[in-house]
Amino acid sequence: MSTTQVATSETILLEPLPPAPTASIPRRSSNPDPPIIPWPEPSIHDAESALPPSTAVSTAQRWNDPPRNKYRVLSCFFAFFVYGMNDGAPGAMVPLFGEYYRLRHSIVSLIFLSPMVGCVLASFASNRLHAVAGRRGVALTATGAYVLAYLGLSQHPPFGVVVFLLVLTGFGSGLMNGSWNSWVGGLVSGSTLLGFLHGFWGAGATLSPILITRIATKVEHWWIFYTMMTGLACVACAGVTSSFWDDAGAGFHRQSVAPRGNANAQPGTIKVLKNKITLTFSAFMVLYVGSEVTIGGWLLTFMMSVRNGSPTASSLATSGFWIGLTVGRFALGWVTGYVGEKVMVTVYLLSAIGLELGFWLGKEFAVSAVMAALVGVSIGMIMPSGIRMMTKLLPPEKHLISVGFATAFAVSGSAVFPFVVGALAEAYGVEVLQPVALALFGTQLALWLFISRNKVKV
């Protein structure tokens, strides 16, 4: 009797064991930490470059870890250098286009406005393009748009075609701005790296007016500049596309969808318009980019017309502004990261307002040139700091779409405000540059104080 009881108890203990591995192992093998990740999401398409989901325990990568990130960061830096050359060119092209096509300031100012169309399209297309083609597709599309635009501009077509081709440059700028800002901003020491990224943009913006002036003086054919830009855009295309080659898009679509399984990624872009943080920072960045490119774009004309400078001296003053901006981004990234973005952006904007007043009231050419350079130093870290603040306030899964939308849409500021100055200059003279710049800085300061006091919630 006792033997039978023991046999029965052994049977009861052994029977539940076989189903245990069958029930747990196949379903959980792709999820290493079930208690922390409640939704069994598939792995993303490029774990080494994409931002992690909100359920991840640890996130940030470094610029050199994994090793392929070194190549990616360098290729992004070079792409932003070309992007900076693109943005620094219109201001130097204003007098050249006006003379070559025999047009007024108000018409030539369309070269500032037309890229806005491309930027707005990029802000809405960025999320879908990432989902379908990944960062590889974004790199190829953005730099490919540059190549096509520069090829057309190098043929010095009619001015109407020039305006259309600049829409392509705006589309490429919007895609690059959104994708590379969100990726670099998500790395360890993101504030410093963003300063470097935008520093390379400033270096490109510094170089292009000098090149254009030299070409116009020595060769007298402005379109040679765009022939050079075609070659640089091809190098940038090869660099960023190859560095993000594994980032192909299939898994990103799965990672981007909501936990409930909605497979349509496009509503995520529309939903951004209801996010207060994204909207507030978008407005702030539109104002910042508008002030930056407006000053850089019209400074050459201002120094020649109002301060009576020679073309060479005026182009050097314009380059001084971009040099100051570049120095500020490379040098102040460490300080901004240490002290904090909230305090330092307030200090930067107050300094910019004071220096801009000195620029306006100081009638001497040398004083204006020095003040312009110092304004560049003071505003250099404002946009990188705004992007870094977004990555701190928003959860990681919203970084790409929100930062991408805000920065891509912000590029439209580089079109609207320079165009407004051009229209006003037609009626009141280029002197309107200074009050417009002061108004933009003052509005940025008010908006930043609103943000820094935690008035905006997720």
TrEMBL record:
This is Predicted protein. The keyword Transcription regulation does not apply. The chain crosses the membrane at residues 71-86, 106-125, 137-153, 159-176, 183-203, 223-245, 279-300, 312-331, 343-361, 367-387, 399-420, 432-451. The keyword Transport applies. Residues 1-11 have a biased composition (Polar residues). It holds the Pfam family MFS_1. It is a multi-pass membrane protein. It is found in: Endomembrane system. Residues 32-41 have a biased composition (Pro residues). GO terms for cellular component: endomembrane system; membrane. It comes from Hypocrea jecorina (strain QM6a). Its main location: membrane. Residues 1-42 are annotated as: Disordered. Residues 72-455 form the Major facilitator superfamily (MFS) profile domain. Keywords: Membrane, Transmembrane, Transmembrane helix, Transport. PANTHER family: BYPASS OF STOP CODON PROTEIN 6. InterPro entries: MFS, MFS_dom, MFS_trans_sf, MFS_Transporter. It comes from the Eukaryota. GO terms for molecular function: transmembrane transporter activity. Belongs to the major facilitator superfamily. PROSITE patterns: MFS (PS50850).
